Amino acid sequence: CIWLRFLVNSPTPMLDTQFLDVILPLPLENRYTYRVPRDLNDQIGIGQRVVVQFGKTKVYTAIIAHIHNTAPSRYEAKYILSVLDESPIVNITQLQLWQWMASYYMCSQGEVMNAALPAGLKLASETELKLNPEFSGEQSILTDNEFLVWDALRINTQLTITEVMKILNQKTVMPVIKSLMEKEALVIDENLVTRFKPRTETYVRLAASLEKEEELEEVFKKLARAPKQLELLMAHVHLSDRYGEQKEVRKKELMEKVSGVSGFAELVKKEVFQTYEQEVSRVEAVFASNGNGENAIGFNEPQKRAIKEIKSAFNKKEVTLLHGVTSSGKTEIYIHLIEEALELGKQVLYLLPEIALTSQIINRLKVHFGGRIGVYHSKYSDNERVEIWNAVNEGGELQYDVILGARSALFLPFSELGLVIVDEEHENSYKQYDPAPRYHGRDSAIYLAGLHSAKTLLGTATPSMETYYHAKNGKYELVELFERYGEMVLPEIKIVDLGEAIRKKEMHSHFSSTLVELMGKALERKEQIILFQNRRGFSPFLECYMCGWIPECKNCDVTLTYHKASNHLRCHYCGFSADLATRCGACGDTNVQTKGFGTEKVEEDLAHFFP
What we know:
Elements: H1 2-9, E1 18-23, E2 32-36, E3 49-53, E4 59-68, E5 82-83, H2 92-104, H3 109-116, E6 123-131, H4 144-156, E7 158-160, H5 161-168, H6 174-182, E8 186-194, E9 199-206, H7 213-222, H8 227-240, E10 249-250, H9 251-257, H10 264-269, E11 273-280, H11 301-316, E12 319-324, H12 330-343, E13 347-351, H13 355-369, E14 373-376, H14 382-394, E15 402-405, E16 417-423, H15 441-451, E17 455-460, H16 465-472, E18 477-481, H17 498-503, E19 507-508, E20 511-512, H18 513-524, E21 541-544, E22 561-563, E23 568-570, E24 577-579, E25 592-595, H19 599-609
Parallel strand pairs: 12-17, 12-18, 13-15, 13-16, 14-15, 16-17
Antiparallel strand pairs: 1-2, 1-4, 3-4, 3-5, 6-7, 6-8, 9-10, 9-11, 19-20, 21-25, 22-23, 23-24
Helix pairs in contact: 2-3, 2-15, 4-6
């Protein structure tokens, strides 16, 4: 009896039942466990997306993180609704990276998932409102706002909450919707909306009945009196038989080959042409070079020495700092190391701090690696980012071995990562401050490389304090490159003591005599000059000469900047503006003076010295 009672009360599940621990795109402390319907047991795998219900009505895309046979003890596991992928879109290494980032940067794995996955791979649960077919139709019980929503639903069948806001011209619409639900006038329907839609293009082929040469010749004879149609058919034959091989022909390419579009519909009607849709990539293959090393780099002796030292350093430590001055040829060293990694069949991640830099460096890399380079950053559309993600994950027509991008590129599903290059490693742009995960791209890339047993090269002319400390104390290896390529001379830097210049009365307005003299010589040589001033406007603030009162922003409690061109005061934090203060706001004195100088003041003074 005791044994039987134990079997009845035991939480041990049936062996046939499988359970999933999933990561939801929500800031949840723990993973949630869901139950798998038996007919889906053979379709699930770690890293696949599944659709699950969380809460009463909300539906989310979740990532499978663990598969087991143990039911949760604190709650009853819900069934998953469906499996979205035939194969995983996230690999085990990525899940390990997510887990580490959640722990190290003190956030949830769901927040990491939100940052990692392109929006196109996530499904949105959009709340849709529909009329309740069982509603009595009694309009007298509805308020004016409720009637507007109910009447709009009669016309449109269904509405989203955003559309209801536009109809009522107000943001607070939930009380209205709640009241309509209580009166059983409408119901809520939660529908999953897939964001990623493959791009398709129309292709043209000859009808199957024209496969034999004599049949095609007969068609040519029949089209002798239709020159436009004949021209289209000849163009198709030419395009499809390029390079002696049968090629698919795009409709767009065929139309560009001939002048005008007349005749195409007739050829389709006569069953000479057949059209069909085919999925194509949104990411244009703009790189013509195959990257066969035709553009060999000529290294100077310092570069050769640095390459040798880096290879030696990689044998000792996982991370190496390349401390090289500007124009020392660091990019050429990166290219050489990338070539060697590709020869070993490895993938390469090349991180840059800013999106703007990718367009500069891509032109240098495409000469060597051609279409093997993929660019990944937030300026790409959702669909383009999904395609690059799939290309790294699956390969196929688009197969990228080298990924160039900003910090988000480290989340891509690498499987054979062999080298990580973090260029300008000191830049603050590698740090994400908001929202969570508030991660550092450089540090996360180092951890990612460790998961793949890959090597990391940090390159910079001005190392960050922590990186330089690690290099000096043996945690990282250090390689220095202080000779510029082509023996170019480093720029001369002069530091002028303005305090001393003011004491000796050598200042010309806000310019030292040294600066005025050097600017004059540069202009005589027909050269250009750049002046940097880190203050906008004419003056950073105004001050009352009598009592020291300073105008401040009413929202931000910071001083207001004086802009002479528009003759007003402005807050550069919130955008608040005010008229120029001609009287003190405290004592009423009219002697309100400008203090400091901004770019407008520099421009005005320069006009006096160099008109």
